[in-house]
Amino acid sequence: MIYISGTMNSGKTAQAIMLNNQAKRQRKKVKVFKVEPERDNTEPTIVKSRCGLSCEGTLIGPNYDFAKYMQLNYQDIDMIIIDECQFLSVGQIDYLAYLNTKVILSGLKVDYLGNVFEAIQRLLTYRPMEVELFSLCSSPGCTNMATHHLLTVNGKIIKEGNNKILGDVVGDTIKYSTVCKHHY
């Protein structure tokens, strides 16, 4: 297993898409998934990075049955790439850890509350090869590496509540910023 971690805007999804493209050029069979925490069904999608890269994928939720998928497709798959892996369930992480197929997971490590996501806590117990990508603190004049996410709703900093609020900007209402420890 390979875990691509970093804050928002660090290029995690772009890196996963580039690995998908590279593997496909080598004629490997790759399946790309993107996890949404409240999703109960599957749906085809285009997985997009903020820098403009994209690839075909499938939206799944934390109840998606990877075992069933692999039973039906094990001969047709060389690699699984999962974006937003912080929203997987612990059971899904356990299954993927023992899969005899290359698994690349891309996602956040820490939520805006400063806590490690439950799925990531479990993932790290399996000691995946971790590739950490960096981004800069978004506070004016700061050149420190971003380590945390600040959530603001209607301009007010939020430090409690649901850790599964999606997106980085919804108009001016909900906004995530990547910041260093000092500005967090």
SSE inventory with pairings:
Blueprint: E1 2-5, H1 12-25, E2 30-35, E3 43-48, E4 54-60, H2 66-73, E5 79-83, H3 90-97, E6 102-107, H4 118-125, E7 129-132, E8 148-153, E9 156-158, E10 169-170, E11 174-179
Parallel strand pairs: 1-6, 1-7, 2-4, 2-5, 5-6
Antiparallel strand pairs: 3-4, 8-9, 8-11, 10-11
Helix pairs in contact: 3-4
What report would you give on this structure?
The protein has 184 residues and is α/β, with parallel strands linked by helices. It contains 4 helices and 11 strands. A 7-stranded mixed β-sheet has the order 3-4-2-5-6-1-7, covered by helices on one side. The chain has a 4-stranded antiparallel β-sheet with strand order 9-8-11-10, with no helix packed on it. Helix 3 (90-97) runs parallel beside helix 4 (118-125). The two termini are 31 Å apart. The model has no long low-confidence stretch (mean pLDDT 91).
Compact summary:
This protein has about 180 residues and is α/β, with parallel strands linked by helices. The protein contains four helices and eleven strands.
- Elements, N to C (H/E): EHEEEHEHEHEEEEE
Poorly predicted runs are none
What is the SS-derived class? alpha/beta
Strand content: 25-35%
The main pleated sheet reads as: 7 strands, mixed
Beta strand count: 11
Question: Please, what is the average pLDDT?
Answer: 91
Rg to the nearest angstrom?
A: 17 Å
Percent of residues in helices comes to: 10-25%
Question: Could you give the distance between the termini?
Answer: 31 Å
Strand order within the widest sheet? 3-4-2-5-6-1-7
Q: Indicate the overall shape.
A: globular
Oligomer: single chain
Figure out the total of helices. Answer: 4
